[in-house]
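Hi team,

Below is the intake form for Cyclin from Arachis hypogaea. Please confirm the fields before the structure is written into the shared record.

FORM ID: S-0412
PROTEIN: Cyclin
ORGANISM: Arachis hypogaea
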Amino acid sequence: MLTGGEYTNHGRQLQPETCQTELNLPRVLCVLSSTLEKLVARNEKLVHELSQEVDGSIRIGKSLNAFHGVRAPSISIPKYLERIYKYTNCSPSCFVVGYVYIDRLTHLHPDSLVISLNIHRLLVTSVMIASKMLDDEHYNNAVYARVGGVSNAELNKLELELLFLLDFGVMVSSRVFESYCLHLEKEMVVNGTGLIKVERALASPKAMLMDEHDHNHLNHEPEILVEDNNNSNQSSPLPQILDSELTFS
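The structure came back. Fields below:
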């Protein structure tokens, strides 16, 4: 499984009480953010070391190139995950399953690395697919695109890209799900943050529905932009968040 290693993000230590109480966010967001930040930092260091080799070659696969941006987005991984959860109301379990998908990618394509140029696109795409698999009610691609800061057309392409890279292996058994929850919890203990239990249950349909206040909040929230990987300035119009955009599976 993907591990973050021993890296600490500029000495910033995430405290258990912060993970559990800040903004009433699911604990899994804090746990996953910490693990992914360390993973990305470790891989960035590896990329730098490879680039310093005498022949100047970087032996990194191109499987994840579709998820690469021109530059790393300014929004941090914790804030990005928080934004996805806040405005899509997907179950906390979707973030664990999204992590499973990313881990499967690294095993199926071991020469590819999860780095700052691709982590945001990987996250929004994997969580969106996980929501379609887990949640009875979920928002469509247009909403996830707006929340994730990419165009609808690009997210549609990324969804297909991820599915093909996974060979459409998107089913996650309860045993595998539990093993990943335990792995994430162990990561926090190993890195000195303490035991933080990851949520296992799915959200209730009522809890998942975005209320009018949330609709208005997102409509007035500053837009984010995850730099388009083809460096195009064209993007599809951003949709309003409406009840009619809920997808029922």
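SUMMARY LINE: The radius of gyration is 18 Å.

Thanks, M.
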